[in-house]
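Notes from the 1:1 (GR / supervisor)

We went over the backlog. Supervisor wanted to see one worked example end to end before approving the batch request, so GR pasted a single chain during the call. The sequence is below; no edits were made to it. Supervisor asked that the structure be written out right there so they could see what the output format looks like.
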Amino acid sequence: MLGERGLWFKMTFCEGAARVPMMLCAPEVSPGLVTDPVSNIDVCPTLCDLAGISLDDIADWTDGESLLPVAGGAGRQSPVRMEYAAEGSYAPLISLRQGPWKYNRCQLDPDQLFNLDTDPQELRNLADDPDHAKTLAGFQTEAEARWDLDAFDADVRKSQARRWIVYEALRNGSYYPWDYQPLQKASERFMRNHMDLNVVEESSAIRAANEMIGEINTINSCNGSLQRQYVDLRAPAVARTACPDLHLPHPVRYHDRG
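Structure output shown during the call:
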């Protein structure tokens, strides 16, 4: 999310955060566009299908479905399942996405049901609409069969308690994060539990500004002379006054949680 509804990052089931493109290239797949929802958990069964590996022996422990039939024009057989229990949540959130429908559930909030064909901005919650009671009931049954939200919540809190016991000890001496480490320190590039969200946003804004703040040589068409302009994007109005032909992007505005 980029500020819509006052939300940032990918901490919601809104389409702006949850919907990302998936690209599939394989000899058996013809070029085309499929708009049906799919999931990252479909990658494993899809790769096994491409490699001719049967999942029958582990089907009970494998989520997702092969996307080869979907890429060939067949409809998806099961809904896309989503979970969230990280930053900003007080209880686990789950979501089901199938066809035009999206169903969201959290034990702390009323259920949500959206028809994305007629309401792509997800502004009209149809969960209380009698005309869609059957659709809602179907998703509720599916969710209850898939998740035990009380157990889900308890497991998260147990995991937090276990990690909290050793948290301080792990940061004594030379601390090495659990994250996979490429050639740069990935544990400091993105939002992590040990970071202050406001600090992350501020440092990102400063870093972006520093990349664009600099010495810019511009031709001043007003007097035909070469002028050296020092442009600070935090004061674009001043820069435009000094050189009216200079085009600057609008400065990024970040949501103020305070």
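Supervisor's comment: Helices lie at 15-18, 43-51, 68-71, 133-146, 149-170, 197-212, 236-242.
Batch request approved.
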